[in-house]
Structure formats: structure tokens, C-alpha cells
Design goal:
single chain, mainly alpha, two-stranded antiparallel sheet, 2% strand
Length: 483
């Protein structure tokens, strides 16, 4: 299983087993993007921006992510190694910027893994309304119950255990849940065609741009996941050129999915009723078929979305932590592989353990996690975009199995577009902007980066970027350990 003859006690010299096929990798990327947000957020989007306003925001956001995805596609094909952003940025910018980018995207992943741990009991309660027992405390008006929180904790333990058992097992789970999710999508389209009303979609737009930006600010959270494919690239047994293409295909599929969800939900019920719905998408699905059972089937689809996103992003976060440790930027403990399953089990336990805390903060944590993860995600995307441009200029002869934009300079145009778009998207979260964040998300953001600072200042300085940057970092780290 372990594709190296070297010991796993040396974090700089281990590699992961190649067990994922073409569909497995696509299911990981697409499934990661289609989490639970489409179930709980669609009603709010329609109220804020109107039907067409929401669709325009989703298409704009999907377009931005597609441009970013193109830079990822080329870099992934060129460097198909676990860690994705970590390897890209290390080669172009050096160790400390690589740590920043890796810690940023890991933070985005962690917020979504934690989001799913909260979303799961929220969803289960829709099916079993009386499950909340033994009140603990009230946070932001939501009374947290022990049984409610434990449902999220137990699900988190199960997902972590599946991932420890091996990426192939996680891939099998992902494949079946994605297929079920796609079946739910077909039912939504059928229900909308047969039972929906175009008049329900009004208003098409709401006055002003605030609603548009409200939807757009959720885009990084909604679309994060295509970058899981680069994280698992070392475990994929397909040509590197094809791995890069899967990144872009996953973004296109996710964009179509969100547009479909908005249209079918809007057609089911008037906006005034959706605004008061318990879970708008589920209630809309039930209304299309005039059946409470169908609403619960949609919730089952929501649970499938939770599991696909949870599974993919836990995998992606653990591979990033593993890669940071393998290069000497995090403690060696995180790079150790399970003796039997050959998975980075300590990294998985670390990420999984953090997520188990989230359910004890209640339902309000959902919105805070969406908002707190987005700025970190954009930081990583911005650094990858800069990396793309630098490597195009600095290493024109680098092996590029998938060259975006052909042999001319059009690829650099795409790179610059990605830099400008990601910078602009980050500015939306700043104070005074239409989509400015409240203090709770910024607090979660600050806590994550404070944790990162503990490790950042231990990353060796003065090591230049390049192909051998990781080896040089390891030399310095090993020398420190011997002292």
C-alpha cells in the first residue's frame, strides 16, 4: 500500500498509496463543493437577491472560481503531489509564504468540516423533531441540547474513522453519496417542471446590490472543494493532465448544481413563504410533490451533501497538514502514517477533533463558520494565482502536461485575472463593504491564525523558493532536532 521503501518515521520521505481512479477524484471534488449550504442558504439568498439576482451572483461566483480553477489545473498537472497549494507556493514563493497559503486553505477546510458537524444534527432534527433533550446553554438565542450536539459528535467520529481506514474506503462512500445526490437533483428538476410555477419566482431582482453581494460573499465557502483534487493528487492513479482537467469539470458541475437548486426552489413556493420556511429547500421540494415524505427525501439528499463535503474536506485538510509536517513546517507527529491503513491518522484525528467542538455552539455557528472560513480560502487562492504567474515567468521550461491558454501569453492573462478577482473578492469582507463580516466570524478567523502563528515563526527563514526548497527546509529542521 505505501508507495515508498523508506520508513514512515521520516516525515520528509513518505508518500501515499495510489488508490483513486478518475471518477473517485471527480466525486471528491464535486462532492466537497455540494455540502449542506444549498439546503439551508437558498431561501435566504432568494429573499435577499431575488431569483435572477441569486442566479447572476452564483454564475459570477462560479466564473471567478473557474478562473482560479484553471490556475490550479495547470499547477496540479505539473506537481501531482499531496498537499496541492503547499507544493505550488513552496516552489514559487518559498517556505513561509507556503505555510501561510497552506494554513489558509486548511482553515477553510476546517470551518466546513465543523459546519457539517453542526449541519448534521440540524438536518436530523428536521426528520426527528423531538430529538433535542437535556438543555446545556443558550448561544445567540439558540438553546443547545446535549443529545443534539452528540448527534454531530458521533457523526464526526464515524467520518474520521472512515478516513483513517483509507482513502479508497472514503472514495467508495463518496461515490455512492454523490450518485444519490444526483438522483435528488433529477427529482428536483422533475418536480419543478411538473409542479412549479413561474409566478413563484418573483421578484426576479431586489432593489440595490446588497442582496447580490450577500450571495457572492458565500461563494468561496460554496465552491471550496475543487482544490481537494490537488490535495489527493498523490493518491490518484490517472495521468497528471487528466487530474488538472477534473478540477475545472468539478467547478462547472457545482455551478450548474447551484443554479438548478435556485430555480427549482424558487418555482415551488412564493418568496414570502420561503422566507418563513423551516428549511426552505426541503419545504419547497415537499410543496412541488405535495408530500411531507418528499421533503424528508430532500433532507436525505442534504445529508448526502453533508457527508460528501465532510468526507472530502476532512481528507483534503488532513493531506495539507500531512504535507506541512512532511516538509518540516509542522511537528513530525502529524506526518506519521497509520501502521495498517497507511493514512495520515494523526492529522485526521487533529482535524476531526477540532470539528467535534462546533456542535456545542449550536445552530448559530453555521453562519459564523461560513463567514469565517471564506477570507482564509481567498488568501490561499490569491497566493496560488500569484504562484501561477511567477512560475510561468521564472520557469518557462517547467514540465506542464496541461498548459492553460496554450503556448502563447494568454495563460498569463488568466493568471492576472485570477489575482485581481481573488483580491476583489477578499475586499468584500472588509468593514464598510456591502458584505462586511460581523465580529463572531472575525473572532474564529483570528483564533485559527493565532494557532498558525505558533508554527509560522518556527518555519526556517532565508531559504529561497525552488524545486529543492522542501529538502532545504528539512535539512534545517533536522539540524535543529539534533541540537
Amino acid at each position: 500500500m505505501l508507495s515508498t521503501t523508506r520508513t514512515n518515521k521520516d516525515p520528509g520521505q513518505v508518500s501515499l498509496a495510489k488508490t483513486l481512479g478518475n471518477w473517485d477524484a471527480l466525486a471528491l471534488g464535486f462532492g466537497a463543493m455540494i455540502g449542506f449550504g444549498w439546503v439551508v442558504l437558498t431561501g435566504g439568498w432568494l429573499s435577499s437577491a431575488g431569483t435572477m439576482g441569486t442566479i447572476v451572483a452564483v454564475l459570477v461566483g462560479g466564473g471567478i472560481m473557474a478562473v482560479v480553477g484553471l490556475t490550479y489545473a495547470e499547477l496540479t498537472a505539473s506537481m501531482p503531489k499531496a498537499g496541492g497549494e503547499h507544493n505550488f507556493i513552496l516552489r514559487a514563493l518559498g517556505p513561509r509564504p507556503s505555510f501561510i497559503g497552506s494554513w489558509a486553505i486548511t482553515g477553510g477546510y476546517v470551518t466546513i468540516v465543523a459546519f457539517e458537524a453542526v449541519a448534521f444534527p440540524r438536518t436530523v432534527e428536521y426528520i426527528f423533531p423531538g430529538m433535542s433533550k437535556i438543555p446545556l446553554w443558550t448561544i445567540a438565542g439558540f438553546e443547545v441540547h446535549l443529545t443534539w450536539a452528540l448527534v454531530g459528535v458521533l457523526a464526526g467520529i464515524l467520518i474520521t474513522w472512515i478516513n483513517i481506514r483509507g482513502v479508497k474506503q472514503a472514495g467508495v462512500v463518496q461515490t455512492f453519496t454523490v450518485i444519490f445526490l444526483l438522483a435528488i437533483g433529477l427529482l428536483m428538476i422533475f418536480g419543478s417542471v411538473t409542479g412549479g410555477e413561474a409566478s413563484n419566482m418573483e421578484p426576479w431582482f431586489t432593489p440595490g446590490m446588497k442582496g447580490f453581494f450577500t450571495v457572492l460573499m458565500a461563494v468561496p465557502f460554496l465552491f471550496i472543494g475543487f482544490d481537494v483534487i490537488p490535495q489527493s493528487a498523490e493518491e490518484v492513479k490517472i495521468p497528471s493532465r487528466q487530474i488538472g482537467k477534473l478540477v475545472v469539470i468539478a467547478v462547472i458541475m457545482a455551478t450548474l448544481w447551484y443554479v438548478m437548486v435556485v430555480l427549482t426552489t424558487a418555482s415551488a413556493m412564493p418568496a414570502s413563504e420561503l422566507a418563513n420556511a423551516n428549511i426552505a429547500t426541503a419545504d419547497a421540494f415537499g410543496a412541488l410533490f405535495n408530500s411531507d415524505l418528499m421533503a424528508k427525501i430532500l433532507i436525505a439528499g442534504g445529508i448526502a451533501g453533508i457527508l460528501t463535503s465532510w468526507n472530502s474536506l476532512l481528507l483534503g485538510a488532513s493531506r495539507l497538514v500531512f504535507s506541512l509536517a512532511r516538509s518540516g513546517m509542522l511537528p513530525e507527529w502529524f506526518a506519521r502514517l497509520h501502521p495498517k491503513y497507511k493514512t495520515p491518522h494523526n492529522a485526521l484525528l487533529f482535524i476531526g477533533g477540532i470539528s467535534l467542538i462546533a456542535p456545542f455552539f449550536g445552530e448559530r455557528m453555521l453562519g459564523w463558520l461560513v463567514d469565517s472560513g471564506a477570507p482564509s480560502i481567498i488568501i490561499a487562492y490569491f497566493l496560488v494565482s500569484v504562484t501561477f504567474l511567477l512560475l510561468r515567468r521564472r520557469e518557462p521550461q517547467m514540465d506542464r502536461p496541461l498548459r492553460i491558454g496554450g503556448e502563447g501569453r494568454f495563460g498569463e492573462v488568466i493568471g492576472w485575472a485570477s489575482v485581481v478577482l481573488t483580491f476583489g473578492l477578499f475586499s468584500l469582507y472588509m468593514p464598510g463593504m456591502p458584505a462586511q463580516l460581523t465580529w463572531q466570524p472575525w473572532l474564529i478567523f483570528a483564533i485559527w491564525w493565532a494557532m498558525g502563528a505558533l508554527f509560522f515563526f518556527k518555519v526556517p527563514r532565508g531559504i529561497p523558493a525552488g524545486v529543492d526548497a522542501e529538502d532545504k527546509v528539512l535539512e534545517v529542521v533536522r539540524a535543529r532536532r539534533k541540537k
